[in-house]
């Protein structure tokens, strides 16, 4: 099959058709209608085989995650997903692989009513580039730069499970009863879209935890010109992580591993009732893990009150090995 047959067969037909898409897949470019009073939020991510997912990863999981990581960025901005484009580099046009990839990607697209509106396909090493677009009321986007001294630092969900899932796949951890669930957290992260939207007007800053809590919270601190402390006792861990705590290397994986895609956000003091309401509304755990301070730097505080030295600061594609 040639490139245009591939596009017609796998990407022209999809489960989402939005009324604000005037021209979608099949023309030189897409045309969308922006609702009045809304601003456009745009993000993009590239996933490379062997870097972002192991070569043996199921095509449906690759398709799902390719879109999920972009929806997570929109969630961190408080944006409602609307459209996305797909740039796909394939070693070959394998129907079985494409069917699985589309099944995973379009299942997530249908959940959030986000429509594929264009992209490109080429022959080459397996690489997936997605650009996602969302909508937010004018002036309502959550940014990294709004944290103030005295704000509380919150985190959704739990940390470290995706890292444990990767270790299970690599054989670094023995298979156990929780292995399937941990691998699922790695391959199919839940973008916190509903939470991000609910945090508009409540959170002073936000970011998704894609490169590790320490690194990503550090981005908020630098953008806001502040510092923070977080307490290890307050960092949420799943029962599976706690059961494997020593084998997982203690706190390091939870604090520095990427791929969790939870939201880390700051909230001014006095909004505890808002947080309780949002937690019930979005069916996700929200943990108060620390506080923003005026002096620069991040202090991780151990149970005995001493500073905990974090051995690494998260993933960096171009870090010196």
Describe it for me?
With 321 residues, the protein is of the alpha+beta class. The chain folds into two domains: 3-137, 60s Ribosomal Protein L30, Chain: A; 152-301, Alpha-Beta Complex (Phosphoribosyl-aminoimidazole Synthetase, Chain A, domain 2). The protein is 32% helix and 25% strand. The chain has ten helices and twelve strands. It has helices spanning 3-10, 59-76, 95-112, 161-170, 179-187, 193-198, 213-224, 239-243, 252-256, 272-282; strands at residues 21-23, 31-32, 38-48, 80-90, 115-123, 127-137, 152-156, 205-208, 227-231, 263-267, 286-293, 297-301. The strands form three sheets. Strands 8-10-7-11-9-12 form a six-stranded mixed β-sheet, with helices on both faces. A four-stranded mixed β-sheet has the order 3-6-4-5. Helix 2 packs parallel to helix 3 and helix 4 (161-170) packs across helix 5 (179-187). The longest helix has 18 residues, at 59-76. The model has no long low-confidence stretch (mean pLDDT 93).
């Amino acid at each position: 099959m040639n490139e245009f047959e591939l596009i017609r067969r796998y990407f022209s037909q999809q489960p989402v058709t939005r009324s604000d898409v005037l021209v979608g897949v099949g023309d030189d470019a897409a045309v969308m209608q922006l609702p009045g009073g809304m601003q456009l939020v745009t993000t993009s991510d590239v996933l490379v085989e062997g870097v972002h997912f192991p070569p043996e990863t199921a095509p449906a999981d690759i398709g799902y995650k390719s879109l999920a990581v972009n929806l997570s960025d929109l969630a961190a901005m408080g944006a409602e997903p609307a459209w996305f484009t797909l740039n796909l580099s394939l070693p070959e046009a394998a129907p079985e692989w494409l069917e699985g990839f589309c099944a995973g990607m379009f299942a997530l697209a249908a959940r959030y009513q986000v429509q594929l509106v264009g992209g490109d396909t080429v022959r080459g090493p397996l690489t997936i580039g997605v650009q996602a677009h969302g909508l937010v009321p004018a002036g309502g986007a959550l940014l990294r730069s709004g944290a103030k001294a005295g704000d509380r630092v919150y985190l959704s969900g739990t940390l470290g499970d995706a890292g444990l899932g990767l270790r299970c796949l690599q054989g670094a951890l023995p298979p156990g009863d929780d292995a399937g669930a941990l691998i699922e957290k790695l391959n199919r992260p839940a973008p916190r879209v509903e939470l991000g939207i609910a945090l508009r007007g409540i959170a002073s800053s936000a970011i998704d935890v894609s490169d590790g809590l320490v690194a990503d919270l550090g981005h908020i601190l630098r953008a806001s010109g502040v510092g923070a402390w977080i307490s290890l006792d307050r960092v949420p861990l799943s029962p599976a992580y706690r059961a494997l705590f020593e084998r997982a290397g203690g706190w390091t994986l939870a604090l520095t591993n990427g791929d969790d895609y939870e939201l880390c956000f700051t909230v001014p003091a006095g909004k505890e009732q808002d947080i309780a309401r949002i937690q019930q509304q979005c069916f996700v755990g929200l943990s108060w893990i620390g506080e923003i301070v005026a002096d620069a730097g991040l202090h991780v505080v151990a149970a005995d009150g001493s500073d905990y030295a974090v051995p690494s600061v998260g993933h960096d594609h171009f870090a010196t090995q």
